[in-house]
Amino acid sequence: MQVFTCAELMTAAHALGGQVDFDVGMADATPVLAGWQQVHTVDDGVVLYLSRSRDMVGGCSHNRLAPGITAGFLVDGEADVAIGKHRLRLEGAHRRMPTMLVHLREEDSFQRHWQAGRQESKVSLHLSDDWLRRQLDGDATGSARLSRVCRSHADNQSWRPGAPLLQRAAHLMESAPQSLPLVRRLQQESFALELAADVLQTLASDTGERLLGVHLQRCVARLHQWLESGEADALSIAQMARQLGTNAVDLQRGFQQLHGSSIVAYMRTLRLERARQALLRQRVPVDVAATIAGYAHTSSFSAAFKRLFGVSPSQLK
Questions:
Q1: Under CATH, which number does the domain 2-205 receive?
Q2: How far apart are CA 183 and CA 190, in angstroms?
Q3: DSSP annotation of 294
Q4: Which residues contact 264 (CB under 8 A, 6 or more apart)?
Q5: Would the CA dihedral through 167, 168, 172, 173 be positive or negative?
Q6: SS3 assignment, position 256
Q7: Angle value at C-alpha 169, between 167 and 170, nearest 5 degrees
Q8: Residue 205 half-sphere exposure toward CB, CA atoms < 13 A
């Protein structure tokens, strides 16, 4: 695998029209990533990304995502990302973890949380808003079905690619570096179009609404607001469900499906993120950060912090 230094990674990102910045200062010569990435433009506004990588550092990097639909999943490994204020943890397709399927009305922030030694094999597809408008022009039925999604911003939609797509993705990952350029281009193009069709069919069919129901979706959306604001910090899951007018089992199922995490794990991550921000911005002591995160012992806090962010609290300070 090719090893990228911090400077080389930033140069590669700029070449693709993006930008990568680490929240902890990195020397230009620091090795940060081992792996490869291939970018295939199928059409004006349809771009397929294939990558296999291993983190060599911990921390958090920042980038920008363009407006449109972005769909992604892991063939193998783990990833921890955030789009805007929405945090997603992705795991390989063989595990029961979510995919990423979001629509952005406007450019938004993208964060990637790094952990030294963590590996991922990732597939992602971007469909620009301009491309979507061109395809839907004159298709009143299709436009109506997709209008709800295209009005949303950064809400992760329920989607899971079928077994044939997962198998093809795995095959592309294995053959990508070795294939003949023409063969690789044709394989990637056909896969990208099939993936785009699957994504648009999922969005047009409103599968997520039928599975969860309108009331449960509203409960989950309200709960998500509570969690982000801290309003739910003192509530048990049973109390959350009671106040929202549903039951704990359905609430946890709906939250897992729409946000890719259990309620408890999501709360823990939010608290750790608040502690990280306090360390970075307010320079609070580690024991104070532990209290912010809800930990009674700094050793437990430090272990959880390092698992999530790849660095210890003392290193971050």
A1: 2.60.120.10
A2: 11
A3: T
A4: 237
A5: negative
A6: helix
A7: 65
A8: 12
